[in-house]
């Protein structure tokens, strides 16, 4: 009797274990039929979005399966966190070598010059954002990679409806950044229809994060305000107080990216989707921040970035992403302020303990 109970319990245990293993495999089996996790290359991974994405994907697929790359010298922390390689997006052979050596399956293409920086150096923006993308498309076609390229609210312009801006509408941007992103959307969709390339693209709004600084976009003020508040500085905004733009907290942004990467083919009615979480103006974020730091002083001195913001969407319509593959944001303005201050205060405490 006791033996029977032991055998039953062993069988039950092994059944449970195999169920758990199956469940584990199912969550990881987004690519290989044999259950191997995908091997992923991230270009431009030392910018605002790349470090967080590498962490998220390494948590899901294993540290060694996610290769970070950039042209920037990495910190010790980055090198210790997992594989990191030099990759200039303009060097096709170098990219080929990485794809072959690391047996890459998916490519997340982050390298870019953002809106404000792009306007300061148009020839370089054309090279990095357009020639670089050509390399990525050819490489992905040649090695049959699934490729994700982020687009942006900057892919719209003054002729687009701004409130709300639907998924499919007129796109006549007036920045080289926007032009290069429309080019990326169209070329990716062309490669998909012509060659069967598994191209996936999300148009992100301004992204707000605590641990990495933004790389020269028009929405950077929405990160700066948190740093100024916590360090007791006056916040000088380069946009008018009423300029409304769509925004997203980084965790939502990276989760949307991953959900788009693993969305089943049959759910994707499009290859390019709008995603967003909230829309606010500088005066609205300032009053949300003042709930935590009532003494924050704000002044407004619009510069050339105002001209860019004036042509961008105010409210971004992401209903198609919500209907087709179930996109849902978790952070609104209030929740984002909470998490930003919690994280920035933790960083401040760690810096004061380490004497920095
Ligand atoms: N951050 C946002 O608010 C936002 C919003 C919409 C879309 N996006 C898109 O997401 C992507 C990542 O954005 P981010 O904010 O991390 O940008 P970022 O400017 O912070 O980082 C871009 C990275 O590209 C790298 N790079 C530049 N030239 C390169 C080259 N020749 N070869 C390889 N790498 C090169 C830079 O070193 C940098 O680390 C970009 O394509 C951007 O257009 C970002």
From TrEMBL:
Reaction(s) catalysed by this chain, per the record, are: L-threonine + NAD(+) = (2S)-2-amino-3-oxobutanoate + NADH + H(+)
Database matches in Pfam families: Epimerase
Instruction: Look up the domain of life of the source.
Output: Eukaryota
Q: Name one GO molecular function term.
A: L-threonine 3-dehydrogenase activity
- List residues of the NAD-dependent epimerase/dehydratase domain: 40-275
Q: What class of enzyme is it?
A: oxidoreductase
InterPro entries hit by this protein: Epimerase_deHydtase (IPR001509), NAD(P)-bd_dom_sf (IPR036291), NAD(P)_epim/dehydratase (IPR051225)
In short, the EC number is: 1.1.1.103
- Family per record: Belongs to the NAD(P)-dependent epimerase/dehydratase family.
Q: What does this protein do?
A: Catalyzes the NAD(+)-dependent oxidation of L-threonine to 2-amino-3-ketobutyrate, mediating L-threonine catabolism.
This protein's name: L-threonine 3-dehydrogenase, mitochondrial
Q: Which organism is it from?
A: Scylla paramamosain (Mud crab)
- Kindly list the organism's lineage: Eukaryota, Metazoa, Ecdysozoa, Arthropoda, Crustacea
């Amino acid at each position: 009797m006791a033996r029977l109970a032991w055998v039953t319990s062993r069988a039950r245990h092994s059944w449970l274990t195999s169920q758990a293993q199956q469940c584990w495999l199912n969550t990881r089996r987004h690519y290989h039929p044999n259950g191997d996790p995908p091997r992923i290359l991230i270009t431009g991974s030392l910018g605002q979005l790349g470090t967080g994405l590498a962490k998220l994907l390494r948590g899901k697929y294993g540290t060694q399966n996610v290769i970070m790359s950039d042209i920037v010298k990495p910190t010790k922390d980055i090198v210790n966190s997992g594989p990191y390689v030099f990759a200039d997006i303009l060097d096709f052979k170098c990219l080929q070598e990485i794809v072959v050596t690391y047996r890459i399956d998916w490519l997340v293409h982050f390298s870019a010059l953002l809106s404000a920086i792009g306007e300061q150096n148009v020839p370089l923006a054309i090279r990095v954002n357009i020639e670089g993308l050509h390399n990525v498309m050819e490489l992905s076609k040649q090695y049959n990679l699934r490729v994700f390229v982020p687009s942006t609210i900057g892919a719209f312009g003054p002729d687009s409806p701004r409130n709300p801006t639907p998924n499919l509408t007129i796109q006549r941007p007036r920045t080289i950044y926007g032009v290069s992103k429309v080019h990326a959307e169209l070329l990716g969709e062309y490669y998909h229809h012509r060659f069967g390339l598994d191209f996936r693209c999300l148009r992100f709004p301004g992204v707000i994060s605590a641990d990495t600084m933004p790389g020269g976009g028009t929405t950077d003020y929405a990160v700066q305000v948190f740093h100024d508040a916590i360090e007791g500085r006056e916040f000088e905004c380069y946009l008018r107080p009423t300029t409304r733009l769509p925004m997203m907290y980084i965790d939502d942004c990276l989760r949307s990216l991953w959900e788009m990467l693993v969305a089943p083919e049959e759910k994707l009615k499009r290859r390019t989707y709008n995603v967003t979480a909230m829309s606010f103006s500088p005066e609205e974020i300032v009053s949300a921040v003042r709930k935590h730091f009532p003494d924050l002083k704000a002044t407004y001195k619009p510069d050339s970035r105002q001209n860019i913001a004036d042509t961008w969407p105010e409210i971004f319509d992401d209903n198609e992403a919500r209907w087709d593959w179930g996109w849902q944001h978790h952070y609104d303005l209030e929740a984002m302020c909470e998490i930003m201050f919690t994280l920035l205060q933790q960083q401040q405490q760690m810096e004061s303990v380490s004497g920095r």
